[in-house]
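User:
I study polymers; will you set down one protein's sequence and backbone structure tokens?

Assistant:
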Amino acid sequence: MKCPNCEINMKKTKIDYVFEGIKLLENIEVEKCPKCKEVVMDFETASRVTERSKELGLFGKDVFAERKITKVGNSAIISIPKEFMDILDIEIGQKAILKIIGKDKIEVQLK
């Protein structure tokens, strides 16, 4: 199969399919462009991705939330919506690593 962007031959490979940082499926077979990294999957695999995203309540949704920064003691607090906690299996008391990745971006990695 030729890449729809680069017109070069794509390579069969296996990947973990991740949407907005949430792993939907592991080790799925796709065709991937070695140049632009475009990924193409067959209808059956795309159907599995859709079904899994529906199971997690992600289908047709943008996975983001706007939150107000509040203060507790000397620390700033940003709350995590319950929907996010359910999707990511976050537990109260669970640890997270915060990393500054730009002037206006913070990455949160759950431990």
